[in-house]
Amino acid sequence: MRLAAILLLALGIAACAPPDWLTPYRVEVNQGNYVTQDMVSKLRPGMTKTQVRFVLGTSLLNDPFHKDRWDYIYVLQKDERIIQRRVLTVIFVDDKLQRVEGDVVAAAPREDALSATAAPVPAQPAPRASPPPPPPEKGFFGTMWEKLGF
Fold it and tell me: What is the pLDDT of residue 20?
């Protein structure tokens, strides 16, 4: 009788969902190249590929069909949700920087920097509005995990 009560109690405890404060810690996941507005503002038309690589870092995406195009993509995820997504494309002509396109635009120049600049900086094209990314698929285990209350 006592053994049956203990087993019934253990089964009842095992069937309960864990409390909200007992959820696992989920880390923010940074993927790709983190490019800031200050980094983009240092770019000038006519810079070599080596100079651009020094300013922005090495691009993670190298397209073998477009050797004169570098794509810098950055994604920040938290709790399996995309919080931030940035795309920057650098285009070269004859191994010289021609233009920069994407979500990250150059920061507004400071007044003290304007007096030190000899040549005017050409205007950057307006950033393209990209549709929001689709929500990540949960799959079988994600759906089951959600139904269990995790």
Answer: 67
